[in-house]
Write a structure and sequence with these properties.
two-stranded antiparallel sheet; alpha+beta
Length: about 140
């Protein structure tokens, strides 16, 4: 089975953000770090070369594939900011309806710039998603005992 490429690294989050050429993406990345750090209660870490992640959880699929991923995170891609694990709570659909200009696909949330969305709604999405993931993982761990 292929090894997961998304792993925490020793790369500097500050250096990664400072190297972003687009000033809007750089400012949005700094704001997302603050927002996500508050939601997760965890410091940012680089996951691979381009994902800023907060906290982590272990997953295992029925296929046997397993690994670790950040509780929440983002990557400033050229076409849009990709936000990971932000739409996993039961309230996601209601909150997304209030968020503003965005798209979703394969469990990811895409926004062009933070100015396009309501940051309070984004904060609620992040907080609820972290709580939901932690609750699912605690529940799964309890079933194994």
């Amino acid at each position: 089975m292929a090894e997961n490429k998304t792993k925490p690294t020793k790369l500097s989050v500050a250096a990664f953000v400072a190297a972003l050429a687009d000033p809007t993406k750089r400012a949005d990345a700094k704001a997302l770090i603050k927002l996500m750090q508050g939601a997760a209660g965890e410091k940012p870490k680089m996951w691979g070369p381009s994902i800023v992640g907060f906290g982590s959880y272990h997953y295992r699929y029925e296929s046997g594939r397993e690994g670790d991923m950040p509780l929440i995170g983002f990557s400033p891609r050229k076409p849009a900011m990709v936000l990971y694990n932000m739409i996993g709570s039961s309230d996601s659909a209601t909150l997304l309806a209030k968020l503003g200009k965005h798209t979703t696909a394969k469990g990811c949330l895409y926004i062009k710039k933070l100015a396009d969305v309501d940051e309070k709604v984004l904060q609620a999405l992040a907080t609820k998603s972290v709580a939901s993931t932690r609750a699912r993982k605690r529940s799964a761990a309890g079933k194994k005992s």
